[in-house]
What does this fold into?
Amino acid sequence: MWARAVPYGEFGRLRRDAPVAWSADEGSGFWSVSRYADIVAASRDVATFSSSRGVSFEDPTDEDMAARRTIIDTDPPEHTKLRKVVASTFSQRAVAVYEHFITGLTADVLDRLPAPGEAFDFVDAVAKEVPIRVLAQVMGLPAADLDLFIDLGDRLIANTDPEITDVVWGRDDTDAYRRFPFRSPYGKRLWDLGREVVKDKLREPGDDLLSKLLRAEVDGDRLSETDLDNFFSILVVAGNETTRIAIAQGVLAFCQYPEQWDRLRAGPDLVEAATDEVIRWSCPTHFMRRTAAADTDLGGARIRAGDKVVLWYVSGNRDEAEFADPDAFDVGRSPNRHLSFGRGGPHLCLGVHLARLEVKVVLAALARRVSRFELAGEPRRIRSNFTNGLKALPVRVTP
It folds into this structure.
């Protein structure tokens, strides 16, 4: 697990010397795909590179998958049908409606920051506050439970960090939880919390996303309790954690490259480009795994049916063949066809437009209020090779 930093140097070596490389582990091993073009090619070829066996390193049984399968663990046509249920809520036009709300929310959050020059944790004070409240507005989540949603989401997505969860994947025996999200007992707690919210929506439905899910049909049938459980868990975790990571990692980048912050403040029209550069640079989700459905060739390697194939978005985002000077943080970068939301296939992140809007609004608001970010201590990253999350980002700001 990556406790201190992402091994960008090793990914650079892989792209150069072994772009599709076999890695042995205690189980069956897996292929690491590190080049941008190969990642996009595999993402497009869903018939050969399947998501139906899960997107992490583990080997779930058919029964495990049936219990906890989310939309990201499906292939077309099932994936297409499930995506259609929620796609309208996350379209660019639908998301634009939330800009006024996100702007006001961000202003309220920034108004509560400590006095100038006083050190504070940016993750706790800002990065975690905006995404969960936007998600609550979209999904119709009860405000009283938002801290609990954050806590459960943290314990799931950081299930390899003993400072965050007491049930650590890869260290503890998690067999009893194999049919819960992220192979964690906290996945079951998130399901239970979701069922309570659903009961309230059945009594008093609204125009929020959960109410729409309760009315939705796939092939003429309403979503089952299992479907609702898994929609709820993936929406809460993906809709909150990834945007929080991008916002926090973006501010860390501006601490490290203050000339880029000056450049953005001097040119507010750069905010769109800066948003995509923050998302490329941060790459909140490092990888997704696929499983080869048939023997195939990719990047000069012969892959056998049943092999795990790991698409390292974090490496593709630094590929010299796609990005000029990829190890430079450049708020004016254009074009910027990053892989942080996926690219080239049906699994493009559902919340891409909402996440981009949140990051853009927060950056724009900070640019109006803050002239300089300064680290006030050592950033602490989550112990994970799946997510690029920060546990803490101590900073001081100059207004």
